[in-house]
Write a structure and sequence with these properties.
Number of strands: 11
Number of domains: 1
Mean pLDDT: 84
Helix content: 25-40%
Strand content: 15-25%
Largest sheet: 7 strands, mixed
Oligomer: single chain
Strand order of the largest sheet: 3-2-1-4-9-6-10
Low-confidence stretches: 1-5, 278-283, 285-297
Length: 299
């Protein structure tokens, strides 16, 4: 079933963030400028300080769709866990997932919605801005008025900035379905995420969380489709995260491949609130106890 055959189909845009409200504000500007808005936006916050909550509160007052803040305490890099919380809280049938450092082309949400197909998940891509261009877009030039062009100085992976939607149908992508898995621009049917129990929270720290989820989706029979030339996004520059946890996380990923695991033991179901009405979806209570820290831009 494609989205076009189901006009009542609902989408949720999930934006991950951590202590970089300047970037998040720029991303939300690009969401406001979408040609086709999602039905709701959830900010999946991995433990940011009060500045991020204050920003979301201000934005929500005039945002064109419901904007909600899903937060947990800062206990290190727990991106999978906060995404799981957001996925449980989501009211959409199709979840479009981005990082809080991606500037979205105005056709981004529409492209994902039109590309959606049952039995598949979508893997998007991103063009990269250097440090100088990132400072420019975060210093007063709001991206909803002036997104980078294909020929912008300080840009890398320019092919990912080409916006020619009719070319999308001809993209086959890598032969290995796990090659270039990037959680910064992906989309899933919520039912498929529930089936595999979302992100595996045995994975702690940066690295392999997206690939491990993708592997279990593939084992469940959910096919990858590569979305290029339509859901264009620009990645803001930030310092590289520590890779100290990659070796341990890669071992978990290899076990998932070796045993062809479909469902993880520690995932979304931890956050599901059992309610009498089976048609209701749980919403997570956002109880905040912010902790101070100095790290910026952990997306």
């Amino acid at each position: 079933m494609t989205v076009e055959s189901d006009p009542k189909f609902r989408t949720t845009l999930v934006i991950a963030t951590y202590n970089w409200p300047e970037a998040l504000g720029a991303v939300l500007d690009t969401v406001r400028a979408q040609w086709e808005l999602p039905d709701e936006v959830l900010v999946a916050d991995d433990g940011s300080r009060d500045e991020t909550a204050d920003l979301i509160t201000r934005e929500a007052m005039s945002f064109p769709v419901p904007l909600r803040h899903v937060w947990h305490e800062d206990a290190g890099f727990r991106l999978g866990a906060i995404r799981n919380r957001a996925m449980v809280a989501a009211g959409g049938d199709y979840l479009i997932q981005v990082d809080g450092d991606l500037l979205l082309h105005p056709g981004f949400v529409r492209a994902h919605r039109r590309f959606a197909k049952r039995g598949t998940y979508a893997q998007g891509s991103r063009a990269m801005l250097d440090e100088r261009q990132t400072r420019r877009y975060l210093s007063g030039v709001r991206p909803m008025a002036a997104l980078p062009s294909l020929f912008a100085r300080g840009a890398r992976n320019r092919v990912n900035a080409i916006h020619v939607p009719w070319l999308s149908r001809f993209v086959l992508g890598p032969k290995d379905a796990l090659t270039r898995t990037r959680g910064a621009n992906m989309a899933f049917w919520r039912d498929d995420l529930v089936r595999v129990n979302g992100y595996n929270e045995e994975i702690n720290g940066w690295g392999r969380e997206d690939s491990e989820l993708a592997a279990r989706l593939l084992h469940a029979g959910v096919r990858r489709r590569n979305l290029k030339f339509s859901a264009v996004a620009w990645h803001l520059h930030h310092r590289v995260l520590s890779s100290g946890s990659v070796e341990r996380n890669h071992a978990i990923f290899e076990r998932t491949l070796r045993e062809r695991l479909v469902r993880c033991a520690k995932g979304m179901d931890q956050y599901v609130v059992r309610v009498p009405d089976n048609d209701r979806r749980p919403s997570l209570e956002n109880t905040r106890d912010p902790r101070r820290g100095d790290e910026e831009g952990r997306t």
